[in-house]
Amino acid sequence: MAPPADGSCCKGPGYASPADAMAKGPREKLVYVPCIQTVEGRKDYLATVCVDPDSPDYSKVVHRLPMPHENDELHHSGWNTCASCHGDEKSTRDKLILPSLGSSRIYIIDMSDPAQPKHHAVVEPEDLKAVGYSRPHTSHCMKSGDVIVSMMGDENDGAKGGFVVLDGQTWKIKGSWNSEDDVTPFGYDFWYQYKFNVMISSEFGSPCRWWKCFNPADVPTDYGTSLHVWDFNKRKYQYTVPLGEEGLIPLEIRFLHNPEKPVGFVGCALSSTIFKFELSEESGKWEAEKVIAVGPKAVEGWALPNMPGLITDILISMDDRFLFFSNWLHGDIRQYDITDPAAPKLVGQVFLGGSITKEGSVKVTDDKELSEQPAAAEVQGRVLHGGPQMIQLSLDGKRLYVTDSLLTPWDRQFYPNLISNGTAMVQVDVDTVKGGLTINDKFLVDFGKEPDGPVVAHEVRYPGGDCSSDIYLPNELLPNA
Hints:
Layout: H1 18-24, E1 30-37, E2 45-50, E3 61-66, E4 78-79, E5 95-99, E6 106-110, E7 118-123, H2 125-130, E8 134-141, E9 147-153, E10 159-166, E11 173-176, E12 190-193, E13 198-201, H3 207-210, H4 219-222, E14 226-231, E15 236-242, E16 250-255, E17 263-268, E18 273-279, E19 286-293, E20 297-300, E21 306-307, E22 311-316, E23 322-327, E24 332-337, E25 345-351, E26 363-366, E27 378-379, E28 382-383, E29 391-393, E30 399-402, H5 408-414, H6 416-421, E31 424-430, E32 437-446, E33 455-457
């Protein structure tokens, strides 16, 4: 039998454990990046980028799959199967789920040929509205073969957190994953763990607010501050974990990859904090505590007198040793040792643009961390016009891929040069022994030089699964357990 297309060494998609993925996973050669148009009348596309340093196409876009519609605003992506389907010989990782924030479409992309993605199916906005939802965001597969997609809006674009289930064969909507009585005020990301029969979801805000721009006056009423705990098997909301003023706009959720560990983290964007959540042995409930805080910087020449870091993405290495996150406004990526999840230690930091560079118009008047403003970041002479946003780590933990677009209305508001010049995708080398981050000056994808003009690029996804797509099975659910 030929090895599976995703590079795993076992039957079915993915790997039996995160340790297997880290030790046996091949080096990535292709990655997929959604590219969003900044000019009306043009169509977003899925870019295939070569990341093989031995290829003459290294750091080049080698394929573009245009969407059939305009104004989609492609965003995140996920796989039809992952490690949670490990051991199922009938499962193949060959469809990419590609939700669109702007149009509320969900594209299903055929990835049978990793170098030549093509369209397979589409869930139209009317299909989502028929079950009371809009604004799809995160997708995760289940071991049943179906796919869950989180929702952020109702059929009228009001705030509503919930989930729909897509049939993994027909790609039709099976219905809402949760009952209408169990919707949450806001929706965004989610992660589940079979071992503990739990799913935890986060909150962004009201689509009618964040789709226009960011207005601080909207924060008290139109943005989230909580995590929500669900009974995964019963598809039932259980309770809310409030994060309070130190947990404003909790976005990306990451459990430890080890499926036997009831511990995870969430990045809170506006508060610029990281909360650890954990199943308490004492109370029997999931509880959260702040473990990292990035202080605001007092500034002049900006929209507000204090600039938050704005943590927009977080990742955990496959061995659960390091946590990485991006500060989109301050402009840095940080690496923390989380060997003790309750006491993370900063071990790496690198600046990749941002709003406080010394060459810019913002003057920092009080900074508790830096002695001087960082220099503007350049790779191969190309200035990075935004701040680091989406991050993706190689399975072996040695390479971090970075893009700099958050959401086009926010890009226009905070980084107008990003819109006019396009985004860049860069790579950061990771010291996996002592910790440390260094820009790889040999790698650059300049999306400002695309054939039809500049675009902004978002989440990076690997063909064989990665640190934010795959959820692992506990030992008792593995084949031959």
